[in-house]
Design a protein that fits this description.
Blueprint lengths: L3 E5 L4 H12 L5 E4 L4 H10 L8 E4 L2 E4 L1 H9 L3 H5 L1
Parallel strand pairs: 1-2
Antiparallel strand pairs: 1-3, 3-4
Length: 84
């Protein structure tokens, strides 16, 4: 299984929803909670092609995007193949 990483804010409802989907699927992930840490947000933005919103999700070397992007992959049946 490829490494899954997610940048979050602790009280962000979209972050909680994205983590919930990953947890429901039994996916282990590394969470980077960047509440108020502008240096960490800048580093995330570089990895995320300039996107500064949270969550930002990565599977392996692939930038997935945010919560809606993750759920769209799940709805299309494209998430499971990325996780294998």
């Amino acid at each position: 299984m490829p490494k899954v990483e997610i940048y979050t804010w602790s009280r962000c409802p979209f972050c909680i929803r994205a983590k919930g989907l990953l947890t429901k699927k039994g996916v282990e992930f590394t969470e980077y909670c960047i509440d108020g840490d502008e240096a960490a947000r800048d580093a995330m933005s570089v990895r995320a092609n300039g996107r500064r919103s949270v969550p930002q999700i990565f599977i392996g070397d692939r930038h997935i995007g945010g919560c809606d992007d993750l759920h769209a992959l799940e709805s299309a049946g494209e998430l499971d193949p990325l996780l294998q």
